[in-house]
Amino acid sequence: MIARRKTREINVGDVKIGGVNRITVQSMLNADPNNFNALKNQIFELKQAGCDIVRMAVANSEHVKMISKLKELAAVDKNYDIPLVADIHFNYKLAIESVYAGIDKIRINPGNIGSDDRVKAVADVCRNQKIPIRIGVNGGSLESQILAKYGNPTPEALVESALYNAKLLEKYDFTDIAISVKSSDVDKMIEANIMLSEICDYPLHTGVTEAGTVHMGLIKNAIGIGSLLQKGIGDTIRVSLTAAPVLEVYEGISILKSLELYRKSIDIISCPTCGRCRTDVISVANEVEKRLIIIGKNMKDDIKIKVAVMGCAVNGPGEAREADVGIAGGINEFLLFKQGKSIMKIPSDKAVDVLIKEVEKIAGTAKTED
Questions:
Q1: How confident is the model at residue 311 (pLDDT cuts 50, 70, 90)?
Q2: Nearest 5°: phi and psi at 63?
């Protein structure tokens, strides 16, 4: 059991981050910010995939109007009701406008929005409207004096920048803060978050920025985010990928599931196959995985199930004895087993259906027959 780092709690809409709350999964819209239909369709897709919080770029007042329209839609249709974060650079007025438009959180660096009176204006509005602020620091956003001090975006530089920006808000009695220190360098990202977690108790948003395409990006994020989560560090995550945002959500959930940190999960384990296999384990495992996703969406929270697809009926049940239920391949048949104990033999063409029905019983999603 992973011992989570204790952090402060903030509210992003109706989603709580930090404290003893579950780790949330975030993504960012990449649809045209001027196209309302494109934005709402992407929000729908992300929510259906299990996304908890969505960030959107806000570069001008027209984008602020989109916030209002999206929040109006969410008020009448729960399919679009998800906390929204305004991603803002330099323009403090857009931050204030976004708050009044109904945004649930602001992502901004106080150090790059100008004078103290501008920082105070944003802090005052967010405090009065109970809107949290995420300080987002990465290698490209470091203040000139900090970059000059360290020479490059070292972990120490990232942490110093984060604390500097936090102090700008604390100066005006604003502490409803989350912090992210990200880097495209996995080691730097891990080290910076460990350092920050030892200094402050603000909730941390973790992820590897500019991680790349799906293949390499997932590897980098799994190492970076996973390493921190295993140490109990991280309250909300984003798997940044050069890909459709919905894939970020799927992979983020997968990382949480692998560490048994997701609120509900069906974990599939399968063997790598060998010369003893007498059936197509790869195809069967892929089909089972697809169908388990559907069951997982309909499950209640706090249910965790482990399902096995093994290639050898001789060794499979024993190797996967920790699985709640599984199948092991033979010649033209599979063996159904539960927690390592053999139950019955099944014809190969019926094996997946039988396994799925057993999982549905455990998950509480099985349909009642008339």
A1: confident
A2: -70, -35
Question: Band of the pLDDT at 322, cuts 50, 70, 90?
Answer: confident
Res 238: pLDDT: 97
Read off the DSSP letter of residue 190: H
Average of per-residue pLDDT values in the chain: 92
What CA–CA distance (Å, rounded) separates 253 from 237? 9
**Rg of the chain's alpha carbons, rounded to an integer?**
23
Residues 242, 253: Cα–Cα separation, whole Å: 17
Q: Which two three-digit tokens encode residue 266?
A: 């069906």
User: What distance in Å separates the CA atoms of residue 58 and residue 96, rounded to the nearest whole number?
Assistant: 12
* Contact present, 9 and 203 (Cβ < 8 Å): yes
The one-letter code for the residue type at 179 is: I
Amino acid identity for residue 261 in this structure? L
Residue 178: strand pairing partners? 134
**321 backbone dihedrals φ, ψ, rounded to 5°:** -65, -20
Secondary structure (3-state) at 120: helix
- Rounded to whole angstroms, how far apart are CA atoms 145 and 164? 11
73 within 8 A of 40, measured Cβ to Cβ? yes
The tokens describing 359, both together, are 């999982």
Q: Using CA atoms, how far apart are residues 235 and 228, in angstroms rounded to an integer? A: 10
pLDDT at 244: 93
Place of tokens 């906390």: 83
Query: Would you say 112 and 158 are in contact if contact means Cβ atoms under 8 Å apart?
Result: no
Taking the C-alpha atoms of residue 346 and residue 329, their distance in angstroms, rounded to an integer, is 10
What token pair was written down for 76? 């009448």
8 Å CB contact between 17 and 50 = no
Q: Looking at this protein, which amino acid is placed at residue 41? A: N
Fill in the amino acid letter for 329: G
Q: Supply the pTM of this predicted model.
A: 0.89
Burial track 117-127 (b if 16+ CB lie within 10 A, e otherwise): ebbbbbbebbb
Domains of the chain by range and CATH? 9-258 (3.20.20.20), 265-363 (3.30.413.10)
Burial class from Cβ neighbours inside 10 Å (0-12, 13-18, 19+) for residue 38 reads: middle
Q: How far apart are CA 252 and CA 266, in angstroms?
A: 15
Structure tokens at 130: 């109970």
Both tokens assigned to 160: 């110093």
Structure tokens at 129: 């409207």
